[in-house]
Please model this.
Amino acid sequence: MTEPVSARPAPNPRRFGALNVLGLWTLYRKEVHRFWKVMFQTVFAPVVTTLLFFAVINLAFGERRGDIAGIPFSDFLAPGLVLMGLLQNAFANSSSSILVSKVQGNSVDFLMPPLSPLELMIAFIAGAVTRGVVVALATGIVVAFFVDMRPDHIWAIVFYGITGASLLGMVGLIGGVWAEKFDHIAVITNFIITPLTFLSGTFYSIEVLPEPFYTLSHINPFFYMIDGFRYGFTGHADGSILIGVLFILALNAILMAASYMVLRSGWRLKS
Model:
């Protein structure tokens, strides 16, 4: 016998399958609003910093450096700087959001609502990706006035931009949960993210590196992200694009599992 329509449970527009869509969307909006309301600090300041890097390096080495693999030095440099800003700001968004909530004692704002660890993870990562992409777009638009930023392989730009921001967003999430004060976040930034970024070929081609630094560069995830992102604009890559795609996907999967387990356990959040 067919069940009467009136007896069937009405669909809940606030959920999509097992996901609490409304709660997830609300936390994501909070993450975006948090950095957007201070956009001069979170968006415009990184753009200015990147432009200063671009100007100083070009003035110091531009004319003497010459082309790299047939690409003008300025055109080679710009994509790496754009992605560097994207990665650093994706990390800053998720790490600062969680740490500030812990320090101010209002992490209950996202722990008490009916949000699963998966929903929390998605919202924090999406907020980090949004900030990173906004900074990258703003930087790219400004830099395009000085160099050729026409896309050559759009898929590579989108892939490395999104996966790179996701990766650093998850590093920031785990770092924010682990940190108990701002000095701990500074340790990650100053001793892990900045060195790996600067040694990834952002300002040079790794082809000029002697051994063992040339080989070591090929286990640096920042190298694959920056090299792949630059390939999207110039069509030139120092490393294997296929290996880079697989490496970054694998690293994202590992960090996604780690982020989920950290949030599920409540480590340093619920204690």
